[in-house]
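ugh finaly. both done.
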Amino acid sequence: MSTAPSLTLTRLDVQRLERLLEDLDEDLPGVAALQAELDRAENVVGHDEVPAGVVTMNSRVHCREESSGKDYHLTLVYPKDAGPEGTVSILAPIGCALLGLQVGEQIDWPAPGGKTLKLVLLEVEYQPEAAGDYDL
C-alpha cells in the first residue's frame, strides 16, 4: 500500500466527525479507520481557510481509477445521507480515504476480492466551503 498523503481538514468537519464517532459503536466497520484519519490530520484549518482543491465533507469529486481509466463522480457524505447513487459514506473505506485529499493525490481503494485499486483525485467539483455552504 502506498504512503497515505497528508491531510487538511476543517475544524468544523473534525468536530462533526468526532461527534459522529462518539455516537457510534466502536466495533462498527469504518469507525477505527475514520478515527485514525482524524488522528493523522496535519492541518486543521477554519472553513474559510481550506483550499478549494481539498475534499471536505459533502464535497463532490471526480476520480479516475488508474489501471482501467474508469471515472467516478462521488459525493462524500455522513452515513445517514449515504445510499443514493454517487454518494459514499465517510465510514466506507473509499470515503474515509477521500477526506482531506487534494487534487492530484492518489489513494488505494480496497476492492472486493482483496484487489487494491489506485484512484487519482482529478477535481473537486463542489466543495461546500468554497461555495459558502457552511451548514451542510
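ok and the 2nd:
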Amino acid sequence: MKANSLKERVADVLRYKKISVNKASKVLNIPQRTLNRQVNEDGSVGMELLYAILDTYPEISPMWLLLGEGEMVQGATAVAFNAPYYNDLPVSAGYKDVLDAGLETPSSYITLPNKSADFFFPVSGTSMEPEINDGDIVGVKRVNRSEGIVHGDVYMLVTNDNRMIKRCYHDNNDPDLIWCVSPNYPSFPIHKNDVCALFKVVNRIETF
C-alpha cells in the first residue's frame, strides 16, 4: 500500500519513536533547524536525514521510507541490496552530459530489500513535472536496447550528446524512431541508433 509523502513518512517515524524534533536532532545528529525545516516547513527531505533514520532505526523498512511501499516496520528476514547513489550525477529531465556511471564514484548507497534499481540520482529540471519533480530521486535499471522500449514507459536515454528522462513512445510510421514526451516541453523524435544506453526509471523518491 502506497504511503503518504516522504516528508509525512519521516514525521511518522518520529511519532512511532515518540520523539520530538528537538530530541530527534540529537539522536540522528542532524541540526535542529535543518530537521525542523525538512519535517515541519517547506524544505525538501535530504538524503543525510534518510540515511540517519535507517542507520539509527534498522527496523524501519527502506522500501517504506524511501518509496512508500509496504509497512513501516520490516521483518527480520528482509534481504538488503545496496544501490549506488550519485548525488552529483548531472542527469536532468532536459539535456545534460553523456552518462558513464561506471567511471563516477557514488556519493553513497541506498539500501533496499531487493535489487530494484542499478543506481539512484536526483533529477534536475522541470520538464517531467508533475510526474517527476525537480529534486526527486529516481532509480534506474539498465535495459538492453535489443529488448526495445515499452510503449509509454519512462526512460533515461543516453546519446553521444545528451542524457534525458522522457516518457517514450514508438512512432506509428517509422519503427526506427522513438518519440520523447514530457508534460512541459514539446515532444521530439530520436532515432534508435542514436541511443547509446537505455535505462528504465523503476523507482521515484519524492523529496517533498
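summary for the 2nd one i guess: Residues 92-98 have pLDDT under 50 and may be disordered.
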